[in-house]
Amino acid sequence: MADKVKYWIELSDYDFDTAQAMLETRRFLYVGFMCHQVIEKMLKAYWSKVLEEPPLKIHHLSRLAAKSGLIDELSEEQMDFIDSLEPLNIEARYPSYKEQLIKVLTPEYCGELLSKTKALQLWIKSRL
Questions:
Q1: What is the pLDDT of residues 24-82, one digit of tens each?
Q2: Closest C-alpha to 71, from 80, 108, 112
């Protein structure tokens, strides 16, 4: 496995551990943010495996999946999950959205986010 692919995988694994720590400390807003980061970095790992050019410096998960070609392999359920992660990156940063997100990011929902994030992370890893 190429070093650039390993680099992204290691960052993704670190972010997943961070998401778990955020759940344990009840920092639910950051559970969502870190789950987004986990998948973003796995998509960049896949990109690094299949394309010559470095990954785009963007956070839009669907666009990363499309440009790398992985979108063609994703199930509808996986795409729906990616769509649910999209707003957790940007909206978590702005005060006007935080209140809305805090209402959605319950302990139960965050546990589900972690579970689905891990499943998608492992699925992408299986393609590397």
A1: 999 998 999 999 999 999 999 999 999 999 999 999 999 999 999 999 999 999 999 99
A2: 80
Give the span between the Cα atoms of 48 and 11, in whole angstroms: 14
**pTM above 0.85?**
yes
**Three-class DSSP labels, the chain:** CCHHHHHHHHHHHHHHHHHHHHHHCCCHHHHHHHHHHHHHHHHHHHHHHHCCCCCCCCCCHHHHHHHHCHHHCCCHHHHHHHHHHHHHHHHHHCHHHHHHHHHHCCHHHHHHHHHHHHHHHHHHHCCC
* Paired tokens of 50: 């299949």
